[in-house]
Amino acid sequence: MIPMPVTKDRRYVEDCARVNRENVKVGKAKDFAFRRSNYWKAFGKENVVIEPLVFMSDTSTAETAILRALKLYRKLSPKGGKLEWLEGISYEDAKRIVYAALDEQGFDYVSAAETDI
Predict the structure, then answer these.
(1) DSSP letter string, 12-74
(2) What is the pLDDT of residues 53-109, one digit of tens each?
(3) Which of 74, 57, 68 is nearest to 98 (CA)?
(4) pTM to 2 decimals?
(5) Strand partners, 82
(6) pLDDT over 70, % of the chain
(7) To bridge 74 with a disulfide, which of 8, 82, 85, 98 should be the other Cys (CB 3.0-4.6 Å)?
(8) Which of 50, 90, 51, 54 lies closest to 70 in space, CA to CA?
(9) In a 3-state reduction of DSSP, which class is residue 98?
């Protein structure tokens, strides 16, 4: 699959990072259905698997812990910054690291696998 730009913003599309099905992205969302819809619009529904992993209240602190745990896999932007996009890791391995990071830091969460969404 040809890598796609991570943004549709015409000001940045030529110089932004590019991803494909081999990349994994981690992040938080207040409205999961809205976030999923945006990713489907940006990348095409057939190109994206997007699913919630956990539900929790302390998302900012948890996201920081998760990104630290995944630092070896974070894709670099063309300008050198670390992105929420990962490379060189499978989705299943990324999930294991996410859960381990949350457990190691003692975060309260509910696994999405345990809910009916």
Answers:
(1) TTTTS-EE-TT-EE----SSHHHHHHHHHHHH-GGG------EE-S-HHHHHHHHHHHTGGGE
(2) 999 998 999 999 999 999 999 999 999 999 999 999 999 999 999 999 999 999 999
(3) 68
(4) 0.88
(5) 76
(6) 98
(7) 82
(8) 90
(9) helix
- Angstrom CA distances, 72 to 12, 35, 81, stand at 25, 25, 13
CA distance 26 to 81: 16
- Residue whose tokens read 């990072």: 17
Up-side HSE of residue 63: CA atoms within 13 Å toward CB?
Answer: 13
pLDDT value, residue 52:
92
pLDDT confidence of residue 103: 97
